[in-house]
Amino acid sequence: MLGRIVTHWDDIIGPDMAPKTQPVRLSYRQSKTKKPEFLLEISANSAESTLLRYRVDLILERLNRILGEHMITAIRFVPVTANSTLSRPLKHRKTLTEEQKSGLSHVLDTIEDQEIRERLAELGAAILQDDRS
């Protein structure tokens, strides 16, 4: 799960905060129900942590949309150490051409379930955007 979170970090946290933050740890939490619950720790300095506290519900919604279930139930912000750097090179995704969009749409036309079709479309677009050829 953490790998999927890291891969989609820009989409989850937002392009403005992605270079300033990073997911640190995913912890399992005991719950009263049988459903697994996880806590995501996000490393950020105090200023970004304050801003992100206002976005917790949005971040949780995006996380659970990407993961497919409501498994992550809480977020904790942990401070960045003074000598660490969180700067990552920004990854610009290329836009899909009309030919790629129509090809992807044509492949997914046979799938009847709308939710599965949408998720496969997102996956297909991400694969085509990340193509390093």
Brief synopsis:
With 133 residues, this protein is of the alpha+beta class. The protein contains six helices and three strands, in the order H-H-E-E-H-H-E-H-H. The chain has two domains: 2-79, 2-Layer Sandwich (GMP Synthetase, Chain A, domain 3); 98-129.
Fold and architecture overview:
By secondary structure, the protein is an alpha+beta fold. The protein has two domains: 2-79, GMP Synthetase, Chain A, domain 3 (2-Layer Sandwich), CATH 3.30.300; 98-129. The chain has six helices and three strands. A hairpin with a 7-residue loop joins strand 1 and strand 2. Helix 5 runs antiparallel to helix 6. The two termini are 27 Å apart. The relative contact order is 0.14.
> Strand share of the residues?
15-25%
Question: Uncertain regions: pLDDT < 50 for 5+ in a row?
Answer: none
Q: Which structural class is indicated by helix and strand composition? A: alpha+beta
Helix proportion: 40-55%
Observed structural traits:
133 residues, GMP Synthetase, Chain A, domain 3, flat, alpha+beta, single chain, 44% helix
Annotate the secondary structure layout.
Layout: H1 2-7, H2 9-13, E1 22-29, E2 37-44, H3 46-53, H4 56-67, E3 72-79, H5 98-108, H6 114-129
Parallel strand pairs: 2-3
Antiparallel strand pairs: 1-2
Helix pairs in contact: 5-6
